[in-house]
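Weekly sync, protein design subgroup
Attendees: M.S., D.O., the rotation student, P.L. (late)

Item 1: inverse folding check
M.S. brought a backbone from last month's batch and wanted to see whether the design step gives back something sensible before we order anything. D.O. pointed out we never logged the input encoding, so this time it goes straight into the notes. Structure tokens as presented (536 positions):
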């Protein structure tokens, strides 16, 4: 990397404004001998035109006070009042306006220095150097402040990235904004897929930066960076030998994050340090995503370990279930479902423990196992709720659970519904009409009594749908409207439970903010009883 040895003493582009050719010649010759590049103007009008049209513009202007079309004081005020040129240092010079009042007026009206002619060459060059030193230091400070603001904003965006593809885009865009050039960013996702994003500054009106992310496969993505010479990088980054690559990683065994820029865009120590900080910030954000991914996978594995391994198979009903963990959280949830074949009928249930934590999951596991035990013992649905309520208040005081339990009787067309503050079960008759069973008791965990189960007669071919709130509830939407939407989707669902579940998830796409438990039950004709009263 080539750093400028002394930027304060580097040659500058200087605008000299004087109506006398002799004076312009003397000033310009002295400045050119000092190594500077000079543009000349004979009056104020031409000077202002040059300032508006030169690109890049001059770094400093030396303006004679006694110009024919306006005074040098007025020119200075014009320059300082224009946002495009306000930072341009101005040196007033004069052979006639030399009083203290004149010099003070020039400085008050915006000049950075004031020289009296004739000016010794050394004094002119020293004044130019001192003025440039201050102006350049100020510009560097302003640029650094702007770049640090961009660095901070980019770092926040990195840690807000929901996935690795978003992170690689943010990294490329942030580096391009800081360096003001096209760049590329490369990383390997927590799942082992290398990604590349590069910026491209488009030409023409409304030019903007376009960022794309492209998978790029390598032989060993977990250990090495992809071959930079083979990547589809934009032409602005130049040939591989003309690129500057900065690599960062959080641990030696982690795949690196890399930012690639043109070598001539990284010329100062500030450039190097900012690029290094950006790369390291991206690596740390990627590590956070990796930790999140690992925690989410662990939580999902633990959550599924609490759910039934299989559903009972009976002639009385066909069952299908779905469980979707919240995509916006790593915490384990409390949604669950259960189905148990008992001597009296098929017991099915869907419930939700309040909260997302390991404690909530432990309560869920205790409730589900106790529910199975109470159902196998032959307790009625409302009795199951009473016993579960007593269990929760005893072993997990403060926890609350919503739970809907159905007993589908083997010998009759009756379905017993006991609901402890859960979303109401939705029933669809064979003719397509739907209705909710809205009667319910209090939440479990409050120590309150539960009313008797509601007995509902349902014909063979009827469909029962039980859900948790993650499927239908949306932020800022009334619950009744959500229930109406569920009812409309169920009306068009297949009578097959598996197809019905798929239809519900397609028609009511979860927003990922909460877990989803869904159960669909189709009632079949009564089965003949076998020896001992058991269903055949």
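Designed sequence read out in the meeting:
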């Amino acid at each position: 990397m080539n750093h400028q040895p002394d930027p304060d003493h580097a040659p500058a582009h200087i605008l000299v404004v004087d109506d006398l050719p002799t004076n312009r010649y003397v000033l310009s010759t002295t400045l050119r001998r000092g190594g500077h590049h000079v543009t000349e103007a004979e009056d104020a009008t031409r000077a202002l035109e040059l300032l508006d049209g030169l690109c890049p513009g001059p770094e400093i202007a030396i303006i004679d006070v006694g110009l024919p079309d306006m005074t040098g004081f007025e020119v200075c005020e014009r320059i300082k009042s224009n946002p495009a040129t306000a930072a341009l240092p101005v040196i007033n010079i004069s052979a006639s306006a030399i009083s203290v009042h004149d010099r003070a007026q020039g400085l008050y009206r915006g000049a950075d220095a004031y020289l009296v002619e004739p000016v010794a060459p050394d004094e002119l060059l020293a004044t130019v150097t001192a003025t440039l030193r201050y102006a350049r230091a100020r510009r560097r400070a302003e640029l650094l402040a702007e770049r640090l603001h961009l660095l901070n904003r980019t770092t926040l965006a990195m840690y807000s990235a929901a996935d690795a593809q978003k992170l690689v885009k943010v990294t490329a865009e942030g580096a391009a904004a800081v360096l003001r050039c096209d760049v590329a960013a490369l990383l390997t996702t927590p799942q082992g897929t290398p990604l590349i994003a590069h910026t491209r500054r488009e030409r023409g009106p409304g030019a903007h930066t376009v960022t794309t992310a492209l998978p790029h496969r390598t032989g060993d993505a977990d250990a090495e960076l992809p071959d930079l010479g083979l990547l589809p990088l934009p032409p602005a980054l130049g040939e591989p030998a003309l690129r500057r690559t900065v690599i960062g990683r959080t641990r030696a065994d982690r795949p690196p994050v890399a930012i690639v820029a043109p070598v001539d865009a990284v010329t100062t120590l500030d450039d190097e340090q900012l690029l290094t900080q950006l790369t390291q910030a991206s690596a740390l954000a990627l590590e956070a995503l990796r930790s999140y991914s690992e925690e989410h996978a662990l939580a999902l594995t633990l959550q599924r370990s609490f759910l039934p391994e299989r559903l009972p198979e009976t002639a009385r009903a066909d069952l299908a279930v779905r469980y979707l963990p919240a995509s916006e959280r790593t915490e384990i949830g409390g949604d669950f479902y259960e189905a148990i074949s008992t001597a009296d009928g098929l017991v099915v249930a869907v419930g939700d423990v309040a909260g997302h934590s390991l404690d909530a999951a432990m309560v869920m596991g205790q409730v589900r196992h106790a529910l199975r035990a109470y159902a196998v013992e032959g307790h009625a649905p409302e009795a199951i709720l009473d016993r579960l309520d007593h269990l929760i208040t005893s072993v997990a005081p403060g926890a609350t659970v919503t739970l809907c339990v159905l007993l589908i009787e083997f010998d009759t067309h009756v379905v017993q519904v006991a609901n402890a503050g859960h979303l109401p079960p939705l029933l669809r008759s064979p003719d397509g009409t739907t209705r909710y069973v809205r009667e319910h008791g209090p939440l479990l965990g409050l120590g309150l009594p539960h009313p008797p189960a509601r007995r509902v007669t349902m014909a063979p071919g009827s469909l029962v749908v039980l859900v948790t709130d993650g499927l239908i509830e949306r932020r800022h939407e009334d619950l009744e409207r959500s229930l109406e939407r569920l009812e409309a989707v169920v009306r068009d669902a297949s009578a097959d439970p598996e197809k019905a579940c798929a239809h519900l998830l397609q028609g009511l796409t979860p927003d990922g903010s909460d877990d989803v438990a869904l159960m669909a039950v189709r009632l079949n004709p009564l089965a003949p009883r076998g020896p001992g009263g058991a269903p055949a």
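Discussion: DSSP finds twelve helices and 20 strands in the chain. Residues 10 and 62 are 18 Å apart (CA to CA).
Action: P.L. to compare against the previous round before Friday.
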